[in-house]
C-alpha cells in the first residue's frame, strides 16, 4: 500500500480526533452553566408609609370677649412617635344641631418625639350646642424594609455538585 494518497491515513491516527471532541464536550457539559435553579435572596427595599403619631388631647372650650362675643376654641395636641419628622395636617370640624357649622384646616411641623398643638376658633352664639370632630393626616415618610425575593440563575453540574446550587 502506498502512503500519501488521498483518503488514506496512517495506522493509529484514525480515532484520535473523535475522542478529543468527546473529552471537550464532557468538560464543557460539566462547567458551562445551563441548569436553571431557583434561589431566594434578601434585599432592602424602600416603601412609603404614614408617620406614626398619638393624639394627646382634643378639647373644645367656650370663650367670650368684648369684641367677638361667644366663640369656641377647638384644640388638638398630637405627639409624633415616629423616627422621622414631618408636617401634620388636622382638619377641625364644628357641628351644631343643624349639621356642619364650620371647618378649618391647620398644619404644623413636628420633630421626631415632639408635640404639636393645632387650634381653630369658631364664632358661635350664646347657648349654642356644638361638638367637634377632627381628622389627622400624617406626613408620608420613606422607610426601608428587608424583603425576600426569588430569581432563576443557571448553574453548571460542577457548581451543583460542589456547592449544592448555592454558588
Q: How would you briefly describe this protein structure?
A:
The protein is mainly beta and 167 residues long. It has helices spanning 16-31, 157-163, and strands at 35-50, 53-65, 69-80, 86-96, 99-110, 115-123, 131-137, 140-155.
- Spell out the CATH superfamily of the largest domain: Immunoglobulins
Total domain units: 2
Radius of gyration from the CA trace?
39 Å
Helix content: 10-25%
Q: The CATH topology of the largest domain, please?
A: Immunoglobulin-like
Question: SSE order, as H and E?
Answer: HEEEEEEEEH
Mean pLDDT: 88
For the biggest sheet, the summary is:
3 strands, antiparallel
- Ranges where pLDDT stays below 50 over 5 or more residues in a row are none
What is the total tally of β strands? 8
Q: Can you name the CATH architecture of the largest domain? A: Sandwich
Oligomeric grouping of the chains? single chain
The rough form would be described as: rod-shaped
Give the spatial strand order of the biggest sheet: 2-3-6
Distance between the termini: 58 Å
Number of helical elements: 2
Which strand-content bin applies to the residues? over 45%
Task: Determine and state the CATH class of the largest domain.
Answer: Mainly Beta
Q: Label the structural class.
A: mainly beta
Amino acid at each position: 500500500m502506498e502512503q500519501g494518497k488521498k483518503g488514506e491515513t496512517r495506522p493509529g491516527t484514525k480515532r484520535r480526533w473523535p475522542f478529543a471532541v468527546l473529552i471537550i464536550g464532557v468538560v464543557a457539559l460539566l462547567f458551562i452553566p445551563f441548569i436553571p435553579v431557583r434561589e431566594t435572596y434578601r434585599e432592602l427595599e424602600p416603601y412609603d408609609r404614614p408617620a406614626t403619631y398619638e393624639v394627646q388631647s382634643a378639647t373644645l372650650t367656650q370663650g367670650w370677649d368684648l369684641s367677638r362675643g361667644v366663640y369656641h376654641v377647638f384644640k388638638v395636641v398630637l405627639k409624633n412617635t415616629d423616627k422621622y419628622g414631618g408636617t401634620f395636617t388636622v382638619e377641625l370640624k364644628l357641628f351644631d344641631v343643624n349639621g356642619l357649622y364650620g371647618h378649618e384646616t391647620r398644619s404644623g411641623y413636628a420633630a421626631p418625639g415632639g408635640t404639636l398643638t393645632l387650634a381653630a376658633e369658631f364664632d358661635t352664639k350664646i347657648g349654642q350646642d356644638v361638638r367637634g370632630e377632627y381628622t389627622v393626616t400624617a406626613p408620608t415618610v420613606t422607610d426601608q424594609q428587608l424583603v425576600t425575593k426569588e430569581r432563576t440563575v443557571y448553574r453548571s453540574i460542577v457548581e451543583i455538585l460542589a456547592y449544592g446550587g448555592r454558588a
